[in-house]
UniProtKB/TrEMBL annotation:
<dbReference type="Pfam" id="PF00012">
    <property type="entry name" value="HSP70"/>
</dbReference>
<dbReference type="InterPro" id="IPR043129">
    <property type="entry name" value="ATPase_NBD"/>
</dbReference>
<keyword id="KW-0346">Stress response</keyword>
<dbReference type="InterPro" id="IPR029047">
    <property type="entry name" value="HSP70_peptide-bd_sf"/>
</dbReference>
<protein>
    <submittedName>
        <fullName>Molecular chaperone HscC</fullName>
    </submittedName>
</protein>
<keyword id="KW-0597">Phosphoprotein</keyword>
<keyword id="KW-0067">ATP-binding</keyword>
<keyword id="KW-0547">Nucleotide-binding</keyword>
<comment type="similarity">
    <text>Belongs to the heat shock protein 70 family.</text>
</comment>
<feature type="region of interest" description="Disordered">
    <location>
        <begin position="580"/>
        <end position="616"/>
    </location>
</feature>
<dbReference type="GO" id="GO:0005524">
    <property type="term" value="F:ATP binding"/>
</dbReference>
<keyword id="KW-0143">Chaperone</keyword>
<dbReference type="InterPro" id="IPR018181">
    <property type="entry name" value="Heat_shock_70_CS"/>
</dbReference>
<dbReference type="InterPro" id="IPR013126">
    <property type="entry name" value="Hsp_70_fam"/>
</dbReference>
<dbReference type="GO" id="GO:0140662">
    <property type="term" value="F:ATP-dependent protein folding chaperone"/>
</dbReference>
Amino acid sequence: MAIVGIDLGTTNSLAAVYKDGRAQLVPNQFGELLTPSVVSVDKDGRAVVGRIAQERLVTQPQDTVARFKRKMGTDAVYNLGGRRFTPEALSACVIGQLVADAQEFLGERVDEAVVSVPAYFDVAQRAATKRAGALAGVRVERLVNEPSAAALGRHFSNEGAVAAAAADGYPPDETFCVFDFGGGTLDVSVVDCFDNVVGISAVAGDNHLGGGDFDLLIAQEACRINGIGLNALEASQRETLLREAERAKRELTDRDSHAFLRSSIPALPQVLHLTNKRLFELAEPLFTRIERPLKQAVYDSDVPAEEISRAVLVGGSSRMPVVRDYLERLLAVPVTCEEDCDVAVALGLGTYVGIKQRARGVDRLVLTDICPHSLSTDVRNPHPPFEPLASVLIPRNTTLPASSSQVYANSQVGAREARVAVYQGENVYAKDNKQLAELMVPLPRNASEQEAFTVTFTYDINSILGVEVRVHSTGEVTRRVYNGSSWDEGEGALATLQEVQLSARMEPTRVDAELALERALCVAAEGSDYVRNYLRVLTYDFASSLNSNSLKLLIMKTRQLNAVLDRIEADKADNAFFRHGDEGNCGEPGGPGDSLGEDAGDGSHGLDDGLDEEWL
Ligand code: AMP
């Protein structure tokens, strides 16, 4: 059974697989890589997806729909061909088509999909995407943030990476920014790549900003110069005009000087002359919106701006010269946009499929992600305006999986139950955030005092949110898993959560770290008192980082420990370090007067060179 990666875009969708040792894009029935995310339903209830459906946007606009990704996770309903469709049912049609294409390409059945979502998608939107997969008949265990997928694709496709892979190594460490600008969403992320880990440090974005907004502005301008409002046109004319506007926008990209919108709509005889300068003026409000998530992501990442080496542009809208020029002016780092910027996400997904299938060459890669929105519960506010406050358990940009507990007390003495609500968002007052769910927890009868209880939120990389409440006086525990729209009562859901947490701990990085620790213990056992003392301190510190949620920290510490062990073993080989230690300098390492930094007499320096600063 095979796995397919699906980039479910607002405008276009793509499928990718891992085949013959590399990520490969799957062509559709027309041999094209991009399948328009458009669904049309005929009177018999048959759904058509892609290019043919796109044609029907003009001929049968009432039974055809595009851009439904913008409504994922809402209760929007579309009436097509006399039937009602939710955004997830429409997405399922697209996924189903891409899965069929992938099966054709691979010649085998596909039963699992890894689907990309905008990093800024919230819990409900993610859950709707997973349900879309299930409706299409495939298991979607993992959703990958679009910029993370793009980062994976880009980091492992540059020249350094190719050379490193050839030498059985990893690409050089780097921190870069991914600017993913598609048809309907903008995601900005700061990506930290080191060893086998591609880690997302921060994301920020706008779920309602994309190339479609430029099309709309151009269409409105075409109407304005003709003295008519866009809404005065019929639905099919509006659709035609939007398509013509999009064509003019693309033409402007290709020619990079000017383009004309000669509309086929009789009410718009005046031709719109479009230049990059004019487009920039028209789109100024959009550029103001672009700047905000950029600044936010860099600020949230805690990475000094000078450590960001480049900005990688992906997504179809990154092709626009006005976007590139704007970013070049705004950012102090090189801005790169490859020819294939609209397939970068899909290629990264293809690589991720390889990781999932444990394919040789990519089996040790780890992609870490973060929680894009803070998760909180509400607490009483004793001060005016007395609006309940959001008490954050998992702050946004926390690396996943994450788990956090806090102790609360119910506000009424003698209450029979406590209400624990889950909110998502960054606002101070709970009511300004989005309430996801609430849980009623039974409290003991006749309690004479306020009951204390510990609330634990666990949020994993597959967007599963677990809530656990333990009442202190009785020790009773209530556990629920939130599936994006309701509580999932089944034991299976709880088991999945625990399983996922366990497997996260089994990441190769942790295995490396544990091996380094074991190695340190062996070296210590064979070493002098001096070496033993020294390693005791180092491994004590190291062991505590094993529980850290930061893979980067773990990798740095593992590297440092291995470097120290290499040095000790090298010195042991020429007797330098041990001779030094056996001279009786067995005091606590790193302390005043410690002679670790002294020349061992043979040109080597034992454990000096900043190790004290780094370790002790
Ligand atoms: P994506 O969601 O990444 O497939 O991006 C789709 C968006 O990219 C749509 O709004 C397209 O109009 C836009 N796009 C694709 N190619 C170009 C181009 N050459 N110039 C301007 N916009 C483009």
